[in-house]
Amino acid sequence: MGPPLLLASILALTVVAQALLPSYRLLLTLGGAALSCAVAALTGVGTTRAIFADVPWDVMILLVGLGFLAELLVATRVFGVIAAAVTRWSRGEPRRVLVLFAVAMYAVSGLVNNLTALLLVLPILLILLKLLGVGQRYLAWTLGVLLVACNLGGAATPIGDFPAILLLGRRVMTFQGYLWAAAPPTVVALAALLVVVMVRVRPERGLVREPVATRLSLAVMGALYRKVRLSWRLFLPTAACLLAMLGAWVWVPPSSGVGPELIGWLGVGLALAVLPRTGERVIRAKMDVEAVLFLLSLFVMVSAVRQSGVFDSIGRGLTSLPVPSVIQLVLFLLLAGILTGLFSAGPSMAALLDVAASLAARLSPTAVYVGLALSVCAGSSLFLTAATSGPMTQILTERADLRDPLGAPVRFGFFDFLPVGLLSFALIQTVAIVYALLLVAGSLF
Length: 445
Hints:
By secondary structure, the protein is mostly helical. The chain has helices spanning 3-20, 25-43, 48-53, 57-75, 78-90, 94-109, 114-132, 136-156, 162-169, 175-201, 211-225, 232-251, 260-274, 276-285, 289-307, 310-319, 325-343, 345-360, 365-380, 389-400, 414-443. It contains 21 helices and no strands.
């Protein structure tokens, strides 16, 4: 086995192992990164210094900075206020609950990462569902659609999720370029999913609703969250810092030398200066060190594989297929979706971005990169295990101990999510391919 194949095997086996053994996720990825560096050094592929120099530190800075601002927003209690308001607007009607919470999750996920959005909104929804006494079918489709809306919201903006942040950090797309190109198809995909679910699936079918019980449930929810108030003292400066960063990402030209990572760094510094006590507390108690170490280890393994020439070989093989370039693009997007469903978004995006560069040299870069981000979103929605938010939703649902009107327990597991995942994957992957082909066609005229 040559060094390129050995390094690629280490990356693939580590990704599979951490997915199968999430309790040892950090141990496995750190071990895989160390082993990759050792193999690369001993076989002459590259030194550890060269591998670490190839790590996209600008992306790491963006992820840490956005995570900090997300935690500051959490401290303002703005998301609790939003979730409580959505609960009131739903009036306890099952169809309204599903649609409104899906839309709310889509919007929230565009500002904070999927896991944070889920941890903020899901507990309130689970309490409402427990009070309403829903059945197994309704629970599975509601939580499933919620997860997919979370993935779509993350893909809609350049700061919503790792794949989009990676594109921004690598400077293959500008902030406004990604936002204008990616947001519309995610809205289309979410609307298509909601229409199919509401018109064809109808998960609320068979539920017996009692007006008195519904009013009582809403009264209980109102009592539970009546003291949730927005902290304007924290919200106004945090929102001002975030808006300043967004404005800088849109208006500061790359030619100025001020990149997205520097804007993020300056924005975090500004937030710390405005809210020193809260900011220090958030950094010390709330920052997710595990996620940073996981992504660093992932980048190290991908860097070692890149230096071995594997990605260049895959790119050359893809572009040398005896089919038109647009067919190569379609095959690439399908591969991205399937690989993401099997290995999750982070590893897939980090590895496939190098392959995408070979297609972007021949086709519209926007079509290739936005199509890739949407395909990764489709793959993240295929299986419950394809995104970190999936297993967390399962855990939180089990802890909530939900029961149907007859007292039987209702659950949310891998096979409960599968129908939602298959439908969502088909819809989002179709939107990704069609949209990418439209962008390619538009670039030719």
